[in-house]
Amino acid sequence: MSNKLNGGDILIKCLLEEKVKYLFGIPGGQLLPMYDAIYQWGREKGINTVLFRHEQVAAHAADAYARVTNTPGVCFGTVGPGALHLLPGVGTAWSDNVPVVAIIPQVNIQHEDSFILQGNLDQIALFKPITKYQKSIRRIEEIPDAVHKIFREVSSGRPQPVVLEIFSDAFYDTIEEDQISILPSNQYRAIKKPAVDISLIKESLELLLSAKKPLIVSGGGVLRAEAWNELKELAEYLQIPVITSLGGIGSLSNNSKCSLGGLSLSSAQASTGADVVLALGVKFSFTLALGKPPAWKDSQKLIHVDIDPSIIGRSKPITLGIVADCKQYLTQLLAELKKSNRVEKRDWLETLAANKKKNQAASIRKANKDEIPINPVRMVKEIYEFMDEDAILITDGGDLTVFALESINLYKDRKPLSYLQAIGMGHLGVSVGYGIGAKLGKPDKQVIAICGDGSFMMNIQDLETAVRLGLKNLIFIIGNNSAWGMIKSCQVVDFDSRFIDVDLPYCNFGKIAESFGCYGEEVVDPNEIFPALERAKNSEKPAVIDIKIKYEISSMIKGV
Q: 234 near 337, Cβ under 8 Å?
């Protein structure tokens, strides 16, 4: 005997087939069939909603969940304002190539061109610039095929957000279960990556083996492809130094002799000196100086590997362009290398590794000051020394992010998929959403967020969400310099310290956090940072530590 299903039932059945565990968002009337399906039977099957206090934070949480699990994160908002509130979070994920699925309803078909509440809004047009694929459906029968299509798009090629709009009619209508077909993923999309042409593999290998000063640049594409083991094997087999983009942080262990890190003097020395560069899943964005001189040389030979052909050669002239998944490419390259039985020993890596040690020693000396207000470099040092070895790190802010990145390779290793930053968009206010999404994605990991006082205030309301979810070992650390630090520094350097709208009033974020039910504390002495973090960890609550720091101009603004 058949069973009648409404659109909400069908949507949840489709999402369960995709192994979706969480839906991040806020309810709305058109979404209630989806909620009712979860209430009646979805939870027992392993899917649930996570209620937020703002849809933007829900989108950030879906973004973070996707980054740490390497599976699509799913967020939703109701028609009109809910969809609008998702845009900043979806746009941030789009800029950083993160697979996020946004689900939004639309008003009844009969009201779509009227002045019904929340109607008359072309939501697909709004999402189009920040999504890879858009699908709008009006009939219940279309739901399975639409879900198949959006997951095919979000899971293939260059990962970026997609949006699915479902008209209210489709949500509330019913259909016999035997009239729909929900396919497993391997029946509607390719699961394995295509092989790379062997001639391109051989040409790559010849370029690398003939180089005197080869360099590997590892980006987010290595992490999305889960190719970190292959990267390590290649780099150490051929003794090639590796630098990372910000999106590639964690793709090679800091403990490897080949690792030079990212944003550092050591990586700058490598990029200017290399004669052959193997770029893996990188865009040569601003984090890599756009691939331009003086940080890079046009005379360098470049092997550019990316899953998206539109990225290859876009910023820097190439010698060899290869459209490929980074794991597939490296697997084939290693196999060909081992057949050739060639190993190169180069003084180039020895020189760079020695310089790295010198540069790191100088940075560590700067971090031991006991001054009050606390030096931001000292604050970052204490945090890194406190963090668990496998902790997930989030940075949210302008100058605070720069201070954090300058020493990210000094104290603890960075594991794959363990660093979160809104890189491309430079979006502020991500820390609370990122923290919740990362913790739900990896509940056994410690999650640490380093935030500016300005950025943290933007979405502070969802501390309540973290408390309601009972999240533990989730710690937000605010470097509180009572300023929009990055902008203030620009006014110092370029506008003779004519300050306007950059100074913020005193605020005790520890007290605010306590009012939400978090553990909260204010710190003014650098020697109290570590003990405060221990108390936060042991509190069994989400925690906020407000550290009063000295206003300092970051190296990015100084240009040193």
A: yes
